[in-house]
Design goal:
With 143 residues, the protein is mainly α. The protein is 72% helix and 0% strand.
Length: 143
Amino acid sequence: MVVAAVNDNGDNVVFLLHLLSVIVGTGAAFLAPALLSRAQRDSKLSSNSTSALIATVMSPSLLLGGVFGGALVGMSDNVYDFSQMWLTFAGIFWLTSLGAATILYKPPFLTLPDLKKYHPLLGGVLHLSLAIMLVVMVWKPGY
């Protein structure tokens, strides 16, 4: 059963939600280092509260971006398929960025171990995976 065809109103709503959540999540990821640096310099703001705020926005947004992206594939009536190379790459980099964001900026609703020694590596992995995912989504290799 097809809920929406490509470029139908239902598809466009899900596409809009996909784009909004990716913009918010990616924007938060690239803005986070500057915000945390400023919070450490400014004595009025706690870097822990800033990190918690970033995490509350970033991780759910990145998660929803992938969920809405998967919904677009499912709603596309076989125009897009998860076996296409670009969607496989996008899925891998989505999971990588989601994991790095969740470990790097722990959401307050999750209890995770403290891995501060890996923060520089995780920051690089997060930004690189988001940048690669953007390139994959634009050029769609294997489509």
